[in-house]
Amino acid sequence: ELKVEQNPLFLSMQEGKNYTIYCNYSTTSDRLYWYRQDPGKSLESLFVLLSNGAVKQEGRLMASLDTKARLSTLHITAAVHDLSATYFCAVISGTYKYIFGTGTRLKVLA
Amino acid sequence: GAVVSQHPSWVICKSGTSVKIECRSLDFQATTMFWYRQFPKQSLMLMATSNEGSKATYEQGVEKDKFLINHASLTLSTLTVTSAHPEDSSFYICSERGLAGVHEQYFGPGTRLTVT
Question: By C-alpha distance, which of B3, B115, B5, B94 is closest to B50?
Answer without folding.
Answer: B94
